[in-house]
Amino acid sequence: MPESTLYPHVSVDCVIFGFTGEKLNILLISRSGINEEECYNDMKLPGSVIYENEDLDDAAYRVLHELTGIKNIYLQQFHSFGSPERTKNPQDIVWLENAIHMKIGRIVTIGYVALIKIGQKLQNFSDKYEAHWCDINNIGQLAFDHNIIVEKALDYVRLKLEDDPIGLYELLPKRFTEAELRNLHEIIFGTKVDIRNFHKKFLSLHYVVPLDEKQENVAHRAARYYRFDKIIYNQIHR
Amino acid sequence: MPESTLYPHVSVDCVIFGFTGEKLNILLISRSGINEEECYNDMKLPGSVIYENEDLDDAAYRVLHELTGIKNIYLQQFHSFGSPERTKNPQDIVWLENAIHMKIGRIVTIGYVALIKIGQKLQNFSDKYEAHWCDINNIGQLAFDHNIIVEKALDYVRLKLEDDPIGLYELLPKRFTEAELRNLHEIIFGTKVDIRNFHKKFLSLHYVVPLDEKQENVAHRAARYYRFDKIIYNQIHR
């Protein structure tokens, strides 16, 4: 291993949100190792130390692409995290030094948010990672300060989508029902929505276009599918 | 000098906005040196490499405090900049290596925005720095990628103040006139404001409280002073 230095390393970490139709998930990576002769197995955000001559956005896109195979993803830098306390758990340091084959003093990480459609072939991840979609309400204790990063990412997404709801349609499948959009609203903004008021608002969204297709093989009454029209949306919002 | 490494260094840079009543200024530091036997003199943002065991926010507060002597300042992290191109100018590398007595490969910087009242004893800066208030429209070519950082900071402030105008009152003096608030609006949002419409809106701002004081020694009709009431503001906005 190269000699230890006091200089901080720099990484990117990606909080990748996906929506199942019922729950908001994030994509996490299984991590296992041995610390003080005890085996452990926990989860972390997908991330990487930045490469020499690599810009921050490029590093985040690289992580996403390596993991998902997808290139065209909604991705935003949202906050950087640099507390020396980030690496206070010796288990994290040991894991990191094994992963990047370098001695690490501390590591500053640049946080990115991605919004993607879970459906889109996104159940087959690169063999390089053991990746899982996890319900945002049930992620347990993550490595490093990744719980703090997820909290802050969620705050960012809420503010961002209040201002410009286009991100909601990055999360929804290409064709979606009114109930799915309503669920997503309730989860993102953390408030119960009145069904009738929501329906009125839904009908007034000119960029949500009804399709000539309905749900199939459902126990309840089959709901109509809609699609998001980006051109109409941009005419209204830009 | 310690040996060169390929690991990036991490710094903070502060875009400190102040308002003269007529113009939006930022606080810049004079930098001079010799590059290829030519003397140069230019300007940069106040900033610093982060210290060992120092969190990012702490580093930004330290820079502000060292420079201005003020501790209680509106300060927000807004974006990080890590392009390898940031340090493509050899003059910047030479200056930086002299300043921090280390060999530098590249440097990732975390950008902060501060909003302060210029009046507030803020003409006497620490002797350690040669600091100047400069009109945002006339800053010329700054060191490193600092012009890009300033642009991005201004975009951030615009969006932030559209959402929550409290920052406008961080920039205004403790007592201010309607014309000063209107000027600031025009500069921040980059649009000409209709005086009569603005006046109506101004009168409806319950948190802008008239004082029993008027301008003195002015050529035109003396305007009334107002103050910002944070308690009323918080009742409305939180």
TrEMBL record, chains A, B:
Domain Nudix hydrolase: 7-161
Superkingdom field: Bacteria
Name of the protein: ADP-ribose pyrophosphatase YjhB (NUDIX family)
Organism name: Microbacter margulisiae
